[in-house]
From TrEMBL:
Lineage per the UniProt record: Bacteria, Bacillati, Bacillota, Clostridia, Lachnospirales
EC number: 5.6.2.4
Catalytic activity: ATP + H2O = ADP + phosphate + H(+); Couples ATP hydrolysis with the unwinding of duplex DNA by translocating in the 3'-5' direction
Superkingdom assignment: Bacteria
Organism annotation: Kineothrix sedimenti
All residue ranges annotated as the UvrD-like helicase ATP-binding domain in the record: 5-285
Binding residues for ATP: 26-33
Gene3D superfamilies in the cross-refs: 1.10.10.160, P-loop containing nucleotide triphosphate hydrolases, PCRA, domain 4
Record's protein name: DNA 3'-5' helicase
Entry keyword Calcium: no
Length: 821
DNA sequence: TCCCACTTGGTTTTT
DNA sequence: CCAAGTGGGA
């Protein structure tokens, strides 16, 4: 009897095939972690591989921790010498040793998104970028995408030939990298990029790591991006013992640069690769699995596979709908309580999953009211709270004076009477002398332009220098407490009447306990290492698992986890799938969203509850969304309640009890748009915001009047959106048919949509189109034109029109609402 | 320089 | 809804 006897045939193959490249296609719940851990055990115990020659890479620290624990439990000794780590920590470890070869200091700092934004803002100001045209966010995400693809600023510039915007971005990218280098800082993406650069620039370094990591395993391979793949490829290039494990159906990080081709084309890169499919699911009941399979089947680009289970049918999937998100939260919370009463052993068996972090709020409130222990994964990161960032900025400044961002953050916190003007002057001096901001501070008395303000800078510098000298004999805890004491930071909070001052103080206390626990768990605690650990924690890493808390998290965070009871909340088109993906013209986006649904469903072992709220407040506006298309893709016999079937033209009394505000910019003039209230067109309103209000009821009424493209009304310009109040009234309106029910998009941003985007599933019957090729038509936005082509798509007609003014446009008939002339 | 009140713009998911 | 930005007054 060996530990391998419990594995099925495919799993055994995955464990025993240790030579050469291996692609393990592991469906949800098919025991891939088991295969990986047993494989490590096999390599060590049966194959005589030294533990330190094995590397296992995961995406989160939590996954790494779990893997380590499981390896420990099946192999007695040496397990701790297996390198189990995340991509980012791996790179940091390598870079801490060798990045000086790329001209950085080995004690570089790691910039988080906030720091990146600060840098970018500064650059935009200096380069006089019009941030109305090119937003900082856009710039940063362009740079991030470039890095994911290993495109350097120079490459970017070359690719930008002739493209004005791209060329501009290239310039910013270049400058951004220069600033980071000057500050001795790397952003998240750089960690990977620089490691690759290092390996390419220093073959001897690469080779030492190749010899070290003779057997490499990569978990969640479907989420790797091009840069990460290159890193792995380089490391594995000498011995080619590379085992990657993944599931193309669970690829949900395209927005982060994940390249699904990495998994789909693995066999092309490694022609000799062994491909093993794990298709038996050990996690979920038949019903859950059937539902998941039914949903994912709607994706076109995927490797074909058939997940099956020996588990019983299980209960049907619970589907519940509610009028409001409040009632939804109430139900979920009550249901959890009920399960506990009826014998569920701990709250930790339940997880509530949702699409966006914002959705946690209402659920949390209910859990608080009911007194049920819960934990929210993610949301506002502990380490991105203001007070924590301030404290860390002090530590960073003490650790690495070249980090200008950190220095500037704290130079006037608490207030020292050092204002923006002074900071600009110091920066100018620093630029002139080509030194860091902090070094400029040290020479403050040399800076002519700041005059008497120099006197205020000296104490700050002295303070930092003192901290540095104390670092010799201080523990980190002592240092932190000294910083708090000397700066008077907490004291200031205590004296302030700010209502969340108390929270902030508590957070600082929590930071201190984190420092203490860091010191306790590390042999040689040091400041740089602590800051680095802090920089690399993922939200999921931070959940303190006492096993008796309901977990609330996004679907993304839930990947890799499983629970006996899972709730998928907010299953509404516009929420999930998000309206971003619904309105996207890239069909791949909705597929990624569907994979997310697949991930969500397959988290459940036996009990899955799907909830829907007809009405939901999101971003300060009430939305009315139809049931998620993903729910509709689940065969009805798997659900325990039927989807509502609304008969068309079923008139009902509609009580309008709340008028909600919806504002949009009325430019460009004449633009058609969708809001949650239906389709509409902007009318002239001056250049100010106009207030647009309409109830669902009115929408129906007016579309019956046959206004093409909807109906328009502008309220008095002078009246601000918030102040308009209308009297509720009841109107008889037709209920929506399911088809009509679909094209609902959130308000706000959706105001900028031209009604043309492919939202429509509401296929018009061929006979209802009264125009054809050659006819003259009018479009609400583009004016008059001639129909040149009509093509029947799966859902709708695609109409090509050459407009007199706007040129050729291709649009869906249901949306274009063309009028024959 | 600081502080307040008010306006404005932005909103998915995350290592 | 919320965070960041603006502008006036102390």
């Amino acid at each position: 009897m060996s530990i391998y006897d419990t594995l099925n045939e495919q799993q055994k193959q995955g464990v025993f095939t240790v030579d050469g490249p291996v692609l393990l296609l592991a469906g949800a719940g098919s025991g891939k972690t088991r295969v990986l851990t047993h494989r490590i055990a096999y390599l060590i115990d049966e194959f005589g591989v030294q533990p330190w020659n094995i590397m296992a890479i995961t995406f989160t620290n939590k996954a790494a921790g779990e893997m380590r624990e499981r390896v420990n439990s099946i192999i007695g000794h040496g397990a701790e010498q297996v390198w189990v780590s995340t991509f980012h920590s791996t790179c940091v470890r390598i870079l801490r040793r060798y990045i000086d070869r790329l001209g950085f200091d080995n004690n570089f700092t790691i910039y988080d998104t906030d720091d990146q934004k600060t840098v970018m803002k500064d650059i935009c100001k200096r380069l006089q970028i019009d941030t109305k045209m090119l937003k900082e966010r856009t710039l940063l995400s362009a740079i991030s995408s470039a890095k994911d693809e290993l495109i350097s600023p120079v490459d970017y510039q070359l690719q930008a030939m002739g493209d004005y915007n791209k060329a501009k971005i290239a310039g910013v990218y270049h400058e951004y990298q220069a600033v980071l280098r000057k500050n001795n800082a790397l952003d998240f993406d750089d960690l990977i990029v620089k490691a690759v650069e290092l390996f390419k620039a220093c073959p001897e370094v690469l080779e030492s790591y190749q010899d070290r990591f003779r057997y490499i395993m990569v978990d969640e391979y479907q989420d790797t991006n091009t840069a990460q793949f290159e890193l792995i490829r380089l490391l594995a290039d000498k011995y080619r013992n590379l085992c990657v494990v993944g599931d193309d159906d669970q690829s949900i990080y395209k927005f982060r640069g994940a390249n699904i081709r990495n998994i789909l084309d693995f066999e092309k890169v490694y022609a000799e690769a062994t491909v093993i499919k794990l298709e038996q699911n050990y996690r979920s009941s038949q019903n859950v699995l059937d539902a998941a399979n039914a949903v994912i089947r709607n994706n076109v680009s995927r490797k074909d596979k058939a997940l099956w289970t020996r588990k019983g049918e299980g209960s049907r999937i619970h589907f519940r709908q509610f009028d409001t998100a409040f009632e939804e939260a109430e139900y979920i919370c009550d249901d959890v309580a009920k399960k506990k009463r009826e014998g569920m052993s701990s709250y930790g068996e339940c997880a509530i999953l949702y699409r966006t972090n914002a959705q946690s709020r209402m659920l949390e409130e209910r859990f608080v009211v009911q007194g049920i222990p819960y934990d929210v994964v993610g949301g506002t990161n502990f380490y991105s709270r203001r007070e924590i960032k301030d404290m860390l900025a002090y530590l960073k400044t003490i650790d690495n004076g070249r980090d200008d961002v950190a220095v500037k953050r704290i130079i006037n916190v608490p207030k020292r009477g050092i204002g923006a003007t002074t900071i600009v002057r110091v920066q100018e001096y620093a630029d002139m002398r080509n030194i860091s901001f902090y070094d400029a501070l040290r020479e403050a008395d040399q800076i002519m332009t700041i005059g008497k303000s120099a006197a205020k800078l000296a104490p700050f510098v002295t303070m930092i220098q003192t901290f540095r000298s104390k670092l010799e004999y201080y523990s980190l805890e002592e240092l932190m407490k000294d910083v708090i004491e000397t700066t008077g930071y907490v004291k200031e909070l205590e004296e302030s009447d700010d209502e969340d001052a108390e929270d902030r103080i508590n957070n600082i206390d929590e930071l201190i306990s984190k420092i203490v626990s860091y010191q306790e768990t590390h042999e040689e605690p040091n400041l740089s290492e602590f800051l680095e650990e802090v920089a690399l924690v993922a939200d999921i890493d931070r959940i303190e698992d006492d096993g008796n808390r309901v977990l609330l998290m996004t679907l993304h965070s839930a990947k890799g986890l499983e629970f006996p009871h899972v709730y998928l909340a907010g299953m509404e088109d516009g929420v999930f799938p998000s309206y971003m993906t619904i309105t996207s013209d890239n069909p791949e986006d909705i597929e990624e969203e569907r994979r997310l649904a697949y991930v969500g469903i397959t988290r459940a072992k036996e009990d899955l509850t799907i909830t829907y709220a007809k009405q939901r407040m999101l971003r300060g506006e009430t939305q009315y969304n139809p049931i998620s298309r993903f729910v509709k893709e689940i065969p009805e016999q798997l659900l325990d309640s039927r989807l509502p079937s609304v008969r068309s033209r079923d008139y009902t009394e509609y009580e309008e009890d709340s008028y909600e505000r919806s504002h949009f910019k009325a430019k460009p003039f004449g633009m058609s748009y969708m809001s949650q209230y239906g389709a509409g067109t902007a009318e002239k309103s001056g250049d100010k915001e106009v207030s647009y209000r309409r109830t669902e009821a009115e929408q129906s009424v007016f579309s019956r009047e046959g206004a093409s493209g909807g109906y328009q009304r502008i309220f008095d310009k002078g009246v601000s959106a918030q102040s308009v109040k209308s009297k509720p009234k009841a109107i008889a309106v037709p209920k929506r048919t399911p088809a009509e029910n679909r094209p609902f998009i959130a308000g706000g941003a959706a105001g900028s949509l031209s009604g043309v985007s492919g939202l429509s599933k509401g296929a018009p019957e061929a006979g209802t189109l009264n125009y054809g090729v050659g006819d003259r038509v009018r479009h609400i936005k583009y004016g008059e034109g001639t129909v040149t082509k009509m093509e029947k798509g799966p859902r709708d007609y695609q109409v090509t029109v050459v407009f007199d003014e706007a040129g050729q446009k291709i649009m869906y008939a249901a949306f274009a609402k063309l009028k024959k002339l």
